Fold this protein.
Amino acid sequence: MSKLTGKVAVVTGASKGIGAAIAEHLGAEGAQVVVNYASSKRDADAVVQRITAKGGKAIAVQGDVSKPADVARLFGETKRAYGKVDILVNNAGSSTSMCSACSLPPGRP
């Protein structure tokens, strides 16, 4: 059994670079991974493919984490797919000073 079996990880900014590497590592450790991307669907789908090719579980979900509605949708789709969120890696680059997930009211996905 891998260290993260049964855990669900959301990685923002996961379609390229460090975010993609983090998502792939979490998948290799057994986590079910949500690969968040703002605009690079093709790159996000490639990360998902690399995770699933190694026996992992992953989905790609589009969303701009500077927009509260996108953040709510990201977590809503995560809960629909996997039922929960255990790990959040906030890797997305943003020009805003605060992530929208941090401003959601308690209990809100």
Remarks:
- The longest helix spans residues 68-82.
- Residues 15 and 43 are 5 Å apart (CA to CA).
- The radius of gyration is 13 Å.
- The first strand starts at residue 8 and ends at 11.
